[in-house]
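In the previous lecture we treated proteins in isolation. Real proteins rarely work alone, and many bind small molecules. This record shows how such a complex is specified: first the sequence, then the SMILES for fe (ii) ion.
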Amino acid sequence: MTTSTANFSCIPILDYSLLSTTKPQPESRDQFINELRNALINVGFLYLKNHTVSQDTIDKLISYAPKLFDLPQGVKDNIRMENSEHFLGYSRLGTELTKGQVDQREQWNFGTGDRCRWQKGDPDYYRLWGKNQASWPDEALIPGFREMLETYLSQVEELSYDFSSLVAEALGLGPTGLKHFYDAKELMQHRGKIVKYPVVTSGSDQGIGPHYDGGFLTFLLQASPHQGLQVQNMSGEWIDALPIPGTFVINIGKALEFVTRGIAKATSHRVISPKGETPRYSVPFFQSISPDIRLANEILDNFPADVLKLRDERGTVSATDSVNFTEFDREPSGRVILLSKVK
Ligand SMILES: O=C(O)CCC(=O)C(=O)O
Ligand SMILES: [Fe+2]
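The predicted 3D structure, ligand included, written as tokens:
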């Protein structure tokens, strides 16, 4: 593994209020963009504070999370992901593996939008666009949950587009430099999960094993105050990403790393199960790109020399722990996601 001068020992905290449109300050904007460039190239992870998602909605989501998992097992099993052609719904503890090892987590999978895009003759992966209907627990069992989560997902979706334009700017591509990776908003379906990591007293404490995210950008809400998320730096050390109230943890996925020629860095991360008395909860939101995009045809060019220099000074991590399928650059991105679900 290459050790780099740009190795990190903590995850930067970026302040979204530096971009405030009520009092625009060019130097504050420059500061934000510079900090973002550093985080994208040297860390692959950042915290975002003073973001645009309402704290009231986040507080509600945090209080709903345990109630969702406390629903009777039969209710949860009725809306199991395994029965959904859209891969939405509930998945039991122990049904997921990372690199052959069982992850100790229970999850609900949701998507934005509420329609299936697939029509006869369309590619198979359009079926991933699913109606959420099947994945919502009965309103009477958890009143207000659906409305709260739809509000949350649509606010994070908005943030994800705004943030993607800032990422493009920070990489020297101009604010619209990543826009062609997305279809029209009403055609996109982004995915989110609500995850419970139970307390582990014996056996494996792998909440989720070391992995890279596959897409462009992930927006993670740490929905309880537990230690557990760790991020691997250039020399292989695991750095804690402790929950910071009022922030999102944002990280880069393999697809963005690939199309930016390794400039924006995907960083390996994992979750260690909680040891105390109470479970850990988190809510990742995975921003999708157009399902028809073949990444190998879309590798970006025209990066400014200073951005390329920062990448080259950083060096590369020689140990590869890539996504578990090899066709991720050549197949349409929708099929890559489909393959990852059925493997
Ligand atoms: O739960 C977390 O904190 C991280 C989850 C994660 O990395 C993932 O689901 O890809
Ligand atoms: Fe992840």
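Summary for your notes: Residues 157 and 185 are 9 Å apart (CA to CA). Helices lie at 26-43, 55-69, 73-78, 145-170, 254-259, 305-314, 333-342.
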